[in-house]
Amino acid sequence: MFRLDLEPGQSAAVPRFRSLSEIGSEKLHRIHAYWLGQCDGDRLPRRAQMEIDRLGYILPNLNLVDVHHDPLDFRFRVHSVKGADYVDADLTGRSVRDYPDPQYATFVWAVFQAVVESREAKMVSERLFMTDSRIFRWEGVVMPLAEASGRIDKLMVAFELFENDPDT
Predict the structure, then answer these.
(1) DSSP state for residue 25 in the 8-state scheme
(2) What is the distance between the alpha carbons of residues 6 and 128, in angstroms, rounded to a whole number?
(3) N or C, which terminus of the chain has less Cβ within 10 Å?
(4) Reported pTM
(5) What homologous superfamily is domain 2-163 in, according to CATH?
């Protein structure tokens, strides 16, 4: 189990986004480049365009999230193996509000909402405090996918955790 290691005055409800050019992970850079290659001008890629056999290198760290509208909700279509391990719960089929740590649920909700509202991929990098007193740096890229009508219906969320990272 883990929690965000927030700085004084930092709120989980107001995520700090980083420039996509700052992606440090080669795997995250690679999946983001693939997603960008599937975009057609202002049109976001559809889920059907994403060839799963090309994503084997990131699958253990890749979540697929359904975006529900009216009311807005984010439900895991696929909660990654590593994600389930880190939070000690498989959230497949469940809302991000069901994360065991309410602070982290608030953070993830705010990130996903910002991606849907902006219609742009976003990158976040935060410190995580693990229950056994270890601190990791978490880096994630959230990429929107759209229906044929253009409405965002899914999010692809790729992440990596870095232990013993000098940036933590």
Answers:
(1) -
(2) 8
(3) N
(4) 0.90
(5) PAS domain (3.30.450.20)
